[in-house]
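Dear colleague,

Thank you for sharing your sequence with our group. We've completed the structure prediction you requested, and as agreed, I am returning the results in plain text so they can be pasted directly into your records. Please verify that the sequence below matches your submission; if there's any discrepancy, let me know and we will rerun it promptly.
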Amino acid sequence: MPRGSGSTWGAAHTQKSPVDLAALVDHRECVQVGQTVTQVSDGFRHHTHEFAAVVRGETYVGLISRGQIGNLLGTRFGFPLHSHNPIQEQLLPDTLCVTPAMPLMELLGKAMSRTGEAFYQDIPLVEADGHYVGIIAVPSLVRAQSSLVNEQFALAGLQRRELERKNQDLVQSLQQLRQSEGRYETLFQHSPLALALLNLEGGIQAENSKFQALLAPRGGVSPGNLTELMAPRERAAFLALLQLHHTGVIQPGDRVDEFELLLSGAEARLFRFHLSLVEETGQICAILEDITGQRAVERRLALHDKAALFESLAGGIAHELNNKLAPVLGFSELLLSRLELQAGSQVLQTYCQAITRSTQESVKIIRQLLQLSRPATMELQRTDLGAILEEAASIMRFRLKDAEVILRLITPHGSTDIQADAAQIKQVVINLLINAVDAMEHSACRELEVRLEAREGRALVAVRDTGHGIPADKLRRIFDPFFTTKPVDRGTGLGLSVCLGIVQQHQGEITVSSTLGVGTVFEVSLPLVQGLAEPRPHLEALRPRTLPEPPPSHQNLVDGMDVLVIDDEDYVTHLVHEMLGGRLGWRVERIHEGREAIARLEQVSFDLVITDLRMPGLDGFAILGWIRDFRPALLSKVLVITGDGGSKTMEDELVGMGVPVLRKPFTPDELVTHCRGLLAVC
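Please find the predicted structure tokens below.
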């Protein structure tokens, strides 16, 4: 929808492709932030829509509803209390807001996952720069979802018919095989597919060489009955499936099933079964496809996606919480400093100290949360992985002895060198050993094997236990944060999540396979160091620069400074104003938006600029870029304050600009020290 195509309380409809979110816009009803509750209520009387956006000019601010305004003014004292209040104070909380770039399926997933009253709320469509586009009503989403479902059903029908056609061709081929021995040898024995003819008890009555190679990969003899390779829990289901095919309840192509086979001398492997009835002989034709590797790749991709999602989620949470904790910690410190000057305020001082301690403990929890998605800075160096395994085994020897577990550590001759942070890799190994010991608590046989080998340029560490195993439904979630198979008092569900993050930081992979009643195998793959390792800079040098403590003689040189504070949080700018203005007597100007800040920098010369990074509209990096291009002398007088945990991209950008960073929340002393230190350097 082109900008400026609607006006306040104006409606517009757009006809576009269903995949274009703008095509789902029902109306562009909106009110300005300056309007009062009474004015908005009058507006709803002249329009039929239940929801309207609140905008500042053309920029989206929030969402309001007819029912919300009615409830607000309909109470006994509602009208006198709220009628003249700005509508901006009555925004609906936690509303879903989307951009035109969001895929329709993602929008449907988010909309349909809402609970309570939020489920029925319409959804504002807003450009990435905050420009308001319009309102998408819930019925429009339902119609879009129905359209997608119909398309998927149609596609599924086409695929089913194609599979039926292929199965019919296969049945015809099998009929021809029975007529001619020569053709049978050509089409059956030399087929690239793993084919077998089964009776209703699962007995193998005929098989080709590909089928035999799959079931006996090391030159062994394939079993006479396919159910001999299946776990007891799957045998009954497989026999019932054969019976359904024989009776015609299931037609060829109706379904594809997967079963796990325990092959002799090998790990359990997952196979996809394509079954069809040979009516002339009453046999079941089985086509087997080994999909173990495919499933492993899918799990690795899923783990990667989950890790990326969790990193984004944790970073966003940390940023928001740190922003909210900054004024709590700062104002409590300011209040405490004032109370210390007043007699008889010991109780209030105790309250402030409790607030400060609680805030600092909250900050520690936030940093632990970030540790799950962004492990601590690594100190990479050439390390012998075999030595790390021996150290981990030595640390665990008392735990192993108490649990009566026999450990076999198998390592190759010579060193197996990797480029890694030895302490973090050791943490991964110890965590896997602890999990293995816990899994064997009730096992009659308690044997733990740790095997290290080098293969195709990678070091492979396999940790194998003889525990109770992990069910398939839980195996898919084993690396999810806060998911655990242990009792509540035995685990938090964070250990394997941390292991996954550490291994991925080292450009490695971690996988798991398990068989109930047999045991579990965790395998960690890390790249080997080829030849001599190149020296790497210490990662501490890649962090944004810190500031020296200014000498006492410098204090008088930084009096009467003009400071510009840029942050979208009003409480944060207020806090900085109190800290610098009240304590140092500096002149502090507060701005909450990037464009306004740049306009102010064009007009006024400031001695110091303090800016946040994450802000709506133009963010802190845009401001830093403008200063670098148009006020380069001022760049050395910029201090960044941020509640973000610090991604690698953000750290690299700040390093490139040479800008110091002060993490939120901070105390008055920390802010004053950083500001004086920055001016001392200048």
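Summary note from our side: The mean pLDDT is 79.

Kind regards,
the structure core
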